[in-house]
Amino acid sequence: MIADIDLGQGLRLRTLTAHDVDLVVEATGTEMARALWGPHPGPYTPRDARAALNDWDPAAGCQASHGILKHDRLLGALGLMIDGPHSAELAYWVRPESRRQGLALRGVNALTRWTHDELGLDRIWLEINPANTPSLRLADRVGYRYEQRLPHHCRAWTTPDPDHDTWHDCMIWVHANLTTSPAT
Ligand SMILES: CC(C)(COP(=O)(O)OP(=O)(O)OC[C@H]1O[C@@H](n2cnc3c(N)ncnc32)[C@H](O)[C@@H]1OP(=O)(O)O)[C@@H](O)C(=O)NCCC(=O)NCCS
């Protein structure tokens, strides 16, 4: 399902498609670490962006990426990965120069509500590196609740080979039902 949500203050959250290659290239231009769409670190070339958006094609299956846009400029993106009849994982990224402006808070809040209301999913969950303080604080601010710590669950993606990669613990945070709406 395609999302198109007015976030206020000229901001819009809308599902990204294969037509958004130029937006992704521009938005990742100053990123040195990983962005939303996979292990790829640093700026995306048009080819990288095309491959990423194909992997996240909302028409193809269970995962879609949703851009936070202002005046047709991509400021950040949220990923939604449906992993069961009642459940989806949410992931987020904001371009480096646009952080600490409340963009993730607005976007995650809106997409969480939309996922409960429009997709009818009861459980939305986050997977967070215990060292990622901004992400942990964001999860708490937006009304998710800590559920459990999974030992050596996530890859650092220092190498394509999983057997030679570094693995770290992951914290699972959950937004579980409609009665506990995300913070406004
Ligand atoms: C995590 C991330 C998405 C936050 O985006 P953002 O737009 O900067 O976040 P917001 O401005 O909406 O901040 C909302 C709340 O999150 C917390 N937060 C965000 N950045 C923080 C930081 N650098 N240090 C501490 N807390 C932080 C704060 O509680 C903040 O509320 P406050 O500003 O009222 O204190 C962003 O830092 C990012 O893209 N990081 C790289 C990708 C990543 O780590 N994704 C998560 C993978 S699990």
From TrEMBL:
GO cellular component: cytoplasm
Record keywords: Transferase
InterPro entries xref list: Acyl_CoA_acyltransferase (IPR016181), GNAT_dom (IPR000182), Ribosomal_N-acetyltransferase (IPR051908)
Pfam families the UniProt entry points to: Acetyltransf_3
Residues covered by the N-acetyltransferase domain: 11-162
GO molecular function, one term: protein-N-terminal-alanine acetyltransferase activity
PROSITE patterns associated with the record: GNAT
Signal peptide: none
Keyword Thylakoid: no
Protein's name in the database: Protein N-acetyltransferase, RimJ/RimL family
Species of origin: Streptosporangium subroseum
